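Sample entry (443 residues):
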Amino acid sequence: MRLTICLITKGRELFLNDALLSYEPFIKTGEVKVILIDNGSNEQSRSVLLEWKTQNSKFVEYLRVEENASVGTPYFWEQIKLFNPEWIIFPGDDDILVFDIFDEWKLAVSNNPNLNAFACSAVLINSDSEPIGIERTPAILKSMSKPSQLAMGIHESPFLWPGLIFKFDSVITQVPFSRYVFDWWVGLQLISVGDTYSTNKIGVRYRVHGQQESFQTTSRRKYFEGYNMLSDYINSSIFIKALENFSELELFEFFNNCFENKPVYGQPEYFVSLMKEICLATLRIQKFKHLYNEVLNKYLFSANILSKRGDLTNTYTGYSHFEKDTEGNVAVAFQKQVCDLVIGSQKYFNTLSEKKYLVKCHHSPRKSAGIFIDCYNLSNLSEIEIADLLLLAINAHLETIGVINFTLTPFERKLLTYYRNLKSRLPSIVNKKLIYLKHLGNR
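Predicted structure, serialized as tokens:
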């Protein structure tokens, strides 16, 4: 069992010496080698790397390209493969490894022969190597099961890249050429094909400064790349195989975690599309064919669409292989003394749904909790029409309390756009009043 530290650097001589110095306790064990990849660094950084290699020549390999390869690690992947690494870690050239993590990694591997990834935590430091009082842990640290790990891994990158030690040959498919989602993609591969171990023990001192790559592009681009990478992953054989290994109970645990921790950090322009792809991938699996209704109702709920009995048959989802009678995806309960007009609509809701909402009307005790429905205007409506009004009331309540986002009508969107264009021309006193009113509305 050997560990390889692979440093890919474009030359940050201000931090490089500290990074290299932190590798030396690992080298002294005789079980660790280092690959230095000089990614077009300047002469000063090159001298630092070559001098350090000379001092530790028995355990160090050096590779240089004259012109910086901006995509980073993916560019060098095939060349790294030629060094036959077993376990590997990719610290940044501004990070400092903590040797204490070495023995914990060895213990974790010896305790689990199926382990393919070991993920440690990080303490954040500034440019002067001083801790700034913040620690970061792997995103899946508290996810105990494979379904919850996979769902969290689709929500955000599951591991901290500089603190991830993994089996190099566990990544068997072609790596994507991306600076910003490459590590996320690798993390998903590792979760899908084997066991992982995460710890809150500190394995890296992670430096935060203005020249980090993460500060060199917009979040918009990162989310865009994340969406495209996740779409490819969800449609891959690796993801399908992971789902096939789930039981029905595990499948719904995965779905429920995806709803709670939505894909791509819950970005609304992306996560609904990804949830559809996840559902479609599930419905392609023969052993889950009988779950069409349940899967599709969960897909509706992921888009914050509440449904009652029969709604699936008249809601266009892009699927058509469901049973005629569907139970919907929400349940309702009633406060004391709710009138019979309201209670009669209960038959249209799924009594087994985990999402249950309490309803009250004019006849309920004045200070009772619940979502209010105006029962005085229900006498001429059928039970199914009353059920529709209940769904509208629940939806409005969830929007009001911020559980789901408001959906703007085309007219409201035009009005908002018009106000934004007009805002710069309004007198300052009017703008101050509008800001004050907005503040009151958010309280």
